[in-house]
Structures are given as structure tokens and as C-alpha cells.
Amino acid sequence: MSRRVVVTGMGAITPIGNDVDSFWQGIREGRIGFGEITHFDTTDYKCHIAAEVKDFDAKNYMDFKSAKRMEPFSQYAVAAAKEALEDSGLVMDAEDPYMVGCAISSGIGSLQAIEREHKKLLEKGPGRVNPIFVPLMISNMAAGNVSIQFGLKGKSINVVTACASGTNSIGEAFRTIQYGDADVMVAGGTEGCITPVGVAGFTALTALSTETDPTKASLPFDKNRSGFVMGEGAGVVVLEELEHAKKRGAKIYAEVVGYGCSSDAYHITSPAEDGSGAARAMTNAVADAGVAAEEVTYINAHGTGTHHNDLFETRAIKLAFGEHAKDLKINSTKSMIGHLLGAAGAVEFITCVKEIQENFLHATVGYTTPDEEIDLDYCKEAVETEVTYALSNSLGFGGHNASILVKKYAE
């Protein structure tokens, strides 16, 4: 019999708050984290709006030397992991460090380092490229740095599945504990790619909204949606085997009960048009938990605000849940914080846990105008309601689909 896995700690760096409490307060208030891009000059760009992290100083979370040897995506991961571990009350000196692992993903790694060092290469020659350019840039270094900072000697992985990365990392951490390869996993996702080439690349793909009004830039499921807003930040959780958590008297936020994945095997950017791939990830997660589809009443959607995603994800929900789809409450956290790419699923997982705890479903902020085929309940307003199960979806370029099912904890 597989072991039960619970959530005992959470940490977040987001466009609306640099800890879980301030992030969640922003979510409850329906606050948006969008504004003019400040990281670089966007004069020549079609896209001018992003969801940047504000007032972040790495030295508040680690020593100056460590901070200097990390790019923003790694700094965000270490900061969120620090909060999550402190929140969990885990004392590493009392643990077998080889049974405490790390699964923290970044979809891209550091575009900042690539841009900076490529400029040096062209202008000053190969001898001037930073000796630690590669370890600054590569996407596994979030997990590597978190492991180093906190002495986590167990399994350390970085699942790169584009926008599904954060959900896949938490899911693989869940499986690792279920199977007995670790007692505790520090898991999540991180991203920091609001850079010239990042914004230019996603704009060229016509994925980003070019809306200049922050209140209209990210409109998941709305007829007037025009693309996603790029966000940045990190979400990290501490997952723990139930008996291990109880033995040390840990507080338990929720239980992870199901994880499902699939591939569209269809197109490098577009989801499968009939929603069959995403539907299979959802049904796999529900089946993994051993619950009936009707027991699930809420979905935190991938909900990017692009034309294709919102339409095809709606079709997927209908395919997975049949007639029950019309009874589901569905919302998109991206309506407030934008799309955190590899960190999106992890921050949305934290949202699900908080919603379960407080029996509160946030609004899909800005959603006002229904679209013809996009006709389910997308939480135009926030809802106070019993939340026993929360299903979180993440769908990544390349056809990667991941769904994770969280449950209100009960003995």
C-alpha cells in the first residue's frame, strides 16, 4: 500500500506578495500584480505589461556571497524554500538528510545570464565570459541551490516540462514519498524570465497580451482575452509522509491524493483541440486518488487567457467530467498574477491548499464576458463554499499535461 503524503509547509515569492500570507491576502482581495515592465526598456516592444516581483532583496534570505552566485530564478527558489521549511518546523539536524529530497523546477533557467554573457562574447571575446556562466544559467540550479542551502541530500530533481514544470515537480515529489524513496520532499517551481529575449520570443509567438491597460491584460476564459501576461516568482511546498509528519507534531495543511499526466502528442505550442490530452491527465489524477469524478467540485485551471488554451481546456474539462462539468467551480489564478511559466503550477498548488483550508474560491478577476463555447462556471465572483477536493491543471508547450489532486486533510 502506498504511503500517504501531506503538505506541512509553504513558501511563495509572487507578483502580489513575497510570502504566502501577503500573496494569499492579495488573492482574497482580487488584487492584480500587473504593471509596466521595469526590468528593461520596452519602447520598441509590442508588449509593455508584465507581472514582476516587487521589492525583492535576495540578501534578506541568504548571505551576500550566495546571492551573488545565483540568478533571479534560483534566488526566488531559495527564498520560497526558506519560508516553506521554516513554516514546516522541520529541523534538519533531527532528520536523515538522505531522506529529505528536493524537486524544484524552472522551465527556462536564466535568460538574463544568456543575454549578458552572449553580449560579452560578441563585444569582448570568449575569454571574458563568466567562469560560472553555465552553473548560473542551467535550469536545475534552483534545485541544486536549495539543496546546498538547506542540506537536503535526498533525491534532487528538476522536471522541465515548460508550463507544467511546477506541477510535475510536486507530483514527482509526491510519488517519491509514496514509494518510500524519501520521507520529506521540498518541491515546487520557480521562474524569472521577464527579459528582452524572453518577452520578444513570447511576443513573436503571439502568446502575450499586448493590452496596455493592466486591468484588461489577463482575462482568462473571457471573450475579450488577448493572451497571457508573463509573470515571475516561485512557489515551494514541503511534502511529507503522513506518519513522519505526525511523529514530529507537524501542522498538516492538506493531503495530496492524486497525480496524473499525459502528452497531447499533437503540436509544439497548441493543446490538442478536442482536449483529449488534458482530459486524460485529469481523469488519471482522479483515478489515482480512488475517488469518483462527482466528488471533485473545483478546478484551478491552467487558464492562461490565450484563445487556444481556454477553449481547449474547457473542452478537456467537459470530456473528463461529462455532465458533471457544468456543476464544477473553475477559476484561474493567472487572472491576478499572470503566467509564472515553470512556477505557475506550484503557486497555484499553494492557492488550492489555502482555498481548501478557508473554504473560499477566488474570483477569476476581470472575467465579465462569456464566450460561446467557453460556457462553464469560471467564478465571476469569489465564493464561500466547502472545498474538499481541489484539482490543479498545468499544460505546457510540447503537449505536456499534468494534474494534481489535493484533499482536505482528515485522519
Task: Break the fold down into its secondary structure elements and pairings.
Blueprint: E1 5-13, H1 20-29, E2 35-36, E3 49-50, H2 64-68, H3 72-88, E4 100-105, H4 111-124, H5 133-137, H6 141-150, E5 156-157, H7 165-179, E6 184-191, H8 196-204, H9 214-217, E7 233-241, H10 242-247, E8 254-263, H11 276-289, E9 298-300, H12 307-321, E10 329-331, H13 334-337, H14 344-358, E11 360-361, E12 383-384, E13 389-396, E14 400-407
Parallel strand pairs: 4-5, 4-6, 9-10, 9-13
Antiparallel strand pairs: 1-7, 1-8, 2-3, 6-7, 8-14, 11-12, 13-14
User: How many DSSP E strands?
Assistant: 14
Query: Termini distance?
Result: 17 Å
Mean pLDDT: 97
Number of helices: 14
Helix residue percentage: 25-40%
Output the structural class.
Answer: alpha/beta
What shape does the CA trace take? globular
Could you give the order of the helices and strands?
EHEEHHEHHHEHEHHEHEHEHEHHEEEE
Strand order of the largest sheet: 5-4-6-7-1-8-14-13-9-10
Beta-strand content estimate: 15-25%
Measured on Cα atoms, how large is the radius of gyration? 20 Å
Largest sheet: 10 strands, mixed
Low-confidence region ranges: none
